[in-house]
Automatic annotation (TrEMBL), chain A:
The alpha subunit is responsible for the aldol cleavage of indoleglycerol phosphate to indole and glyceraldehyde 3-phosphate. The gene is trpA. The lineage of its organism: Bacteria, Bacillati, Actinomycetota, Actinomycetes, Streptosporangiales. Keywords: Amino-acid biosynthesis, Aromatic amino acid biosynthesis, Lyase, Tryptophan biosynthesis. It is an enzyme of class 4 (lyase). Tetramer of two alpha and two beta chains. This is Tryptophan synthase alpha chain. The keyword Nuclease does not apply.
Automatic annotation (TrEMBL), chain B:
Gene3D superfamilies: 3.40.50.1100. SUPFAM superfamilies: Tryptophan synthase beta subunit-like PLP-dependent enzymes (SSF53686). This is Tryptophan synthase beta chain. Keywords: Amino-acid biosynthesis, Aromatic amino acid biosynthesis, Lyase, Pyridoxal phosphate, Tryptophan biosynthesis. It catalyses: (1S,2R)-1-C-(indol-3-yl)glycerol 3-phosphate + L-serine = D-glyceraldehyde 3-phosphate + L-tryptophan + H2O. The keyword Amino-acid biosynthesis applies. Its cofactor is pyridoxal 5'-phosphate. Pfam families: PALP. The lineage of its organism: Bacteria, Bacillati, Actinomycetota, Actinomycetes, Streptosporangiales. CDD domains: Trp-synth_B. Pathway: Amino-acid biosynthesis; L-tryptophan biosynthesis; L-tryptophan from chorismate: step 5/5. NCBIfam families: trpB.
Length: 273, 412
């Protein structure tokens, strides 16, 4: 992994520019294998600092209807784990750090160390694991160390201070703060507890450890991005990008809409109210 | 054999049965799972809670359930068959044992709403019943496919005041209902308890659900000793998620002379790929919060399952069963749809008892192992069969299977 491509560098660069980082999510294989790469590249061009490539999984328990639809479409289209690595390789080639967001079973089944090895050799930056917490993640903590990968765990509004400390200590790259109690999907307003969670997470992070806090779940437009950028180090957007692709009358128009949303969000993270 | 003897104390403090179980869950649920673990431990140690639960089991659910000798069926199996009559419980299955326990816990935790997944509808009906009894709001998630094949239970749940939400994602069966219930719970966990219906899910569910069903085997052990003066040679049960089976097995685990047999849904046959026999045909992975055997493809995607029985139509299995399988303490075999339906008919015609199609898998398995147990035995072997539920809900399926509709119905 080259120094310029790490998640930490991307967050540092955003911080140096006095803004939050923009993190965009898209599942591999959606709307097609090529289409997902094109859309992720459009997100990069529009100003995303980090890309998360979702590994399509049959039982996405933490996802709302939008991501469920996209993932279902990817699986019906024949998306395989090998396609995820190829997608990561193509997106990472843009120079933007590229993480994989995945439920745990596909990694477990592939073999944790083998998955880490193949992700690293595809140029991937690490994993975000929505249904794996550090206490069950011993193999992954070791594999991430062995292959120099970032490991992004989630914190929630319901996390105790003790858990916030344990989780942040196990993270590398950034920590993913879930802004609300619920599944993924666009919301009309950012939960009022989100800012407090970011604050609590920063306080719980072990002294001397630099760990940016990215906030996700529910952010769908530039105004919300600006609102979140005022208190978080990163703004994570997924369902809103997917919605643009699902609603577009043609793939070309979908890419245009993704680019437009990316630009709006990129402006948002630069405009702290 | 010491591992068997110590197995009774599993899971460990973090919910592991050997390498199985654990807690693979979203961080958002961790606080609730910790709260539940504590509440369950406190309740089980509290004579007040036990008293309240035992009172409900005795005066509301109808426990202890009978142990009925099935002489004419036993002749066909070549062994002495004793049926543990969970079908006679209020709501018609073993599910009420667990639901009353969890509903009481819900109230103790100060929560006002209870949600559940259901396959055949038995757990949904039991949950709706307990919610009505204890004044809790209730929502039940049920795969759309199952709402059609178990429409009577949908009506029962709605009659009892529960909201039934048909799940239209994925295979539209039990696993998708579990997914949807988890999605609800992540957003509602501050006032809602997810009453999981089997010995599955993240810790503490597999342990807690087992503890609430343990009464099945405790009663059966006492009853068979009273009736026959000795322990049975085998205990048999059907296994989907595995709640009635773990309930029936658990008290017998330290009795090394008692063989434990779980019978899974073999659907059209293991070689067809159209089945739900997780332990017989699956591999180890993570699903619905636990490490266990599951049916998955080369990429770790969950496979679609098939069974004539909606209650067994599930690609995973409770982690304690995975542990019992690997330790060799229990044996798991697949029973096909056809074998189960033959046993279903046989019990009807020999004993005047209409079993749930789920339970018919245990009956079919008993017919299979009977001759093996009898071969070379000094005295007639005794088999306790967990008759986990009654078959009223399955009459639509049975009518179609046996061609019971119309003037010439019943010819088969």
């Amino acid at each position: 992994m080259s120094g310029g491509r790490t998640v930490a560098t991307a967050f540092d660069k955003a911080d140096a520019e006095g803004r939050a980082a923009l993190v965009g999510y898209l599942p591999a294989g959606f709307p097609t294998y090529e289409g997902s790469i094109a859309a992720a590249k459009a997100m990069v061009e529009a100003g995303c600092d980090v890309i998360e490539i979702g590994l399509p999984y049959s039982d996405p328990v933490m996802d709302g209807p939008t991501i469920q639809d996209a993932v279902h479409q990817a699986l019906v289209g024949g998306a395989r784990v090998a396609d995820v690595f190829r997608t990561v390789e193509a997106v990472a080639a843009t120079g933007v750090p590229t993480l994989v967001m995945t439920y745990w079973n596909p990694v477990d089944h592939y073999g944790v160390d083998a998955f880490a090895r193949d992700l690293a050799s595809a140029g991937g930056a690490g994993l975000i694991t929505p249904d794996l917490t550090p206490e069950e993640g011993g193999d992954w903590l070791a594999a991430a160390d062995a292959h120099d990968l970032d490991r992004v765990f989630l914190v929630a509004l319901s996390s105790t201070d003790e858990r916030l400390a344990e989780i942040t200590e196990a993270c590398r790259g950034f920590v993913y703060a879930a802004s609300l109690m619920g599944v993924t999907g666009a919301r009309s307003a950012v939960d009022t507890g989100a800012a407090r969670l970011v604050e609590r997470t920063r306080k719980a992070t072990p002294a001397g450890m630099r760990l940016p806090v990215g906030l996700g779940l529910g952010v769908s437009n530039g105004a919300q991005a600006a609102e979140v950028a005022a208190f978080a180090d990163g703004v994570i957007v997924g369902s809103a990008f997917i919605r643009r692709l699902l609603d577009a009358p043609s793939p070309q128009e979908g890419l245009g809409a993704v680019r437009a949303l990316g630009e709006e969000l990129a402006a948002g993270v630069r405009h702290r109210p | 054999m010491t591992t068997h003897a110590t197995g009774i104390s599993l899971p460990d403090v973090s919910g592991h049965f050997g390498r199985f179980g654990g807690r693979f869950a979203p961080e958002a649920l961790m606080a609730a799972l910790d709260e539940l673990t504590t509440a369950h431990a406190k309740a089980m140690a509290d004579p007040g809670f036990r008293g309240e639960l035992d009172h409900l089991l005795a005066t509301y659910a109808g426990r202890p359930s009978l142990l009925t000798e099935a002489r004419r069926f036993g002749e066909k199996a070549g062994v002495r068959v004793l049926l543990k009559r969970e079908d006679l419980n209020h709501t018609g299955s073993h599910k009420i044992n667990n639901v009353l326990g969890q509903a009481l816990l819900t109230k103790r935790m100060g929560k006002t709403r209870i949600i559940a997944e259901t396959g055949a509808g038995q757990h949904g009906v039991a949950t709706a019943t307990a919610a009505a009894l204890l004044g809790l709001d209730c929502t039940v998630y049920m795969g759309e496919v199952d709402t059609v094949r178990q429409s009577l239970n949908v009506a029962r749940m709605r009659m009892l005041g529960a909201e039934v939400i048909p799940v239209t994602t994925g295979s539209r069966t039990l696993k998708d209902a579990v997914n949807e219930a988890f999605r609800d719970w992540v957003a509602s966990v501050d006032h809602t308890h997810y009453c999981i219906g089997s010995t599955m899910g993240p810790h503490p569910f597999p342990m807690m659900v087992r503890d609430f069903h343990r009464v099945i085997g405790e009663e059966a052990r006492r009853q068979v000793l009273e009736l026959t003066g000795r322990l049975p040679d085998a205990v048999t049960a059907c296994v989907g998620g595995g709640s009635n089976a773990i309930g029936a097995f658990h008290a017998f685990v330290p009795d090394e002379s008692v063989r434990l047999y779980g019978f899974e849904a073999g659907g059209d046959g293991l070689d067809t790929g159209r089945h739900a026999a997780t332990l017989a045909g699956g591999s180890i992975g993570v699903i619905h919060g636990m490490r266990t055997y599951l049916l998955q493809d080369d990429d770790g995607q969950t496979l679609e399952t098939h069974s004539v029985s909606a209650g067994l139509d599930y690609p995973g299995v409770g982690p304690e069963h995975s542990w019992l399988r690997d330790s060799g303490r229990a044996i798991y075999q697949a029973v096909t749809d056809a074998e189960a339906m033959d046993a279903f008919a046989l019990l009807c015609r020999t004993e005047g008892i209409i079993p749930a199609i789920e339970s018919a898998h245990a009956l079919a398995g008993t017919l299979r192992i009977g001759p093996e147990l009898a071969a070379g035995a000094d005295e007639e072997p005794i088999v306790v069969v967990c008759l986990s539920g009654r078959g009223d809900k399955d009459m639509h399926t049975a009518a179609e299977w046996f061609g019971l509709v119309g003037r010439d119905g019943g010819a088969r």
